[in-house]
Amino acid sequence: MSAILLYWLVYAGGLAFLAGCVVRAIRYSRQPLHLRWEIYPVPHGPSGELKIMVPEILFLKGLWEFNRPMWYVSFPFHFGLYLLAAGVVLLGCAAVAPVTLFAALHRTYVVCGTAGAFLTLAGALGLLARRLAVRELRQYSSLGDFLNLLFFAATVALLLAGQWLRPAGSPGPLAILRGAATFDTIVKLPVVLAAGMAAGAVLLAYIPMTHMAHFIAKYFTYHRVRWDESVNVPGGSIEKRMAEYLMYRPTWSAPHVAAGGRTWAEIATTNPAKGAVK
Q1: How large a percentage of the chain has pLDDT more than 90?
Q2: How confident is the model at residue 274, as a pLDDT?
Q3: CATH of domain 3-226
């Protein structure tokens, strides 16, 4: 692979990831009003929200409490991705850091990147094995779920192999990043490492197009669903929006819904136990 092609792939992958995340966030923000989850306590103030969100996002606290076997494979996968992201940021900082800070940043990004890659690989393989071994998970897993995990595992394995098995004196991630910043076409890329970086760029662009982008929904899940304290007053905006939603005409094919052009109001006032009115 030529250096210029890899540079374009890296830039395109990063831009596609950012654009995809923005599009996802806009779509989530335009979704119809949620059903209220009023059994959940609502924290007040940024500190109260952070006390709940930080343990959940970083350590998957809910999964630890309610599905411990799944946590053992899901946590390494997610925390490994966090470390990989931190390693990329530190790598970028090392590329432009003064000499006095370079050594510390270099050691830190190597530790974060290596630990993150091994954790992500172990987590991806663990999740894949669990989806195959546990009947309940296997029934709810699509072909795409398996392919996504294999994509992650293969990409991280290529990156690890490319970094640790590259020929002595060949450019590493830092040199390649500096080359990408200046479009240095004379950089001699190690084949396996270049393949891993190319796969990583493609994976980055692919993530927002799939349900793996659920991390974007975290904000809306907490602030628009669990913690929404908007008051429903007569004649208010909530009442007007709900009246609009009840006139929607779902196209679901499930027999018990029997949409058939009916409005939500008609479907909601039908007793499913007595059969949907066609």
Answers
A1: 46
A2: 66
A3: 1.20.950.20
CA distance 238 to 242: 6
Task: Find the Cα–Cα–Cα–Cα dihedral 58, 64, 66, 72, rounded to 10°.
Answer: 110
Q: What is the pTM of this model?
A: 0.84
Parse the chain into domains and list their residue ranges. 3-226, 246-274
At 123, list the tokens.
């987590």
The CB-based long-range contact list for 190-195 (8 Å cut-off, 24+ gap) reads 190/162, 190/166, 191/1, 191/162, 192/158, 192/161, 192/162, 192/165, 192/166, 193/158, 193/159, 193/162, 193/163, 193/166, 194/1, 194/6, 194/162, 195/1, 195/158, 195/162
pLDDT tens, 62-121? 999 999 999 999 999 999 999 999 999 998 888 888 888 888 988 999 999 999 999 999
